[in-house]
Amino acid sequence: MSSSTLKRWLRPEVYPLFAALGVAVGICGMQLVRNISGNPEVRVNKENRAAGVLDNFAEGERYAEHSLRKFVRNKSPEIMPNLNSFFADPK
């Protein structure tokens, strides 16, 4: 790489762009690994592909009800509940 290319792309103004792209690539990679390793509809090896359609409802339920969904299930859908209750509930 020539020095002019480095000077063009490695300026402080470009750092947020690199950070945003890095986060996006990380999220895509995480979802890819999650689908390959845990999705009951994705079969990587030949033996599982030859099995055809399986009625594995327990495995599908385990994939769909992941830990984040279990964590937020009983939470209220408010971003700032204290601020919302302050303005909504007159005292």
TrEMBL record:
Q: Which residues cross the membrane?
A: 14-33
Which controlled-vocabulary keywords does the entry list?
Answer: Membrane, Transmembrane, Transmembrane helix
Q: Which InterPro entries match?
A: B12D (IPR010530)
Taxonomically, the superkingdom here is Eukaryota
Name of the protein in question: NADH-ubiquinone reductase complex 1 MLRQ subunit
- What organism, scientifically named, is this protein from? Helianthus annuus (Common sunflower)
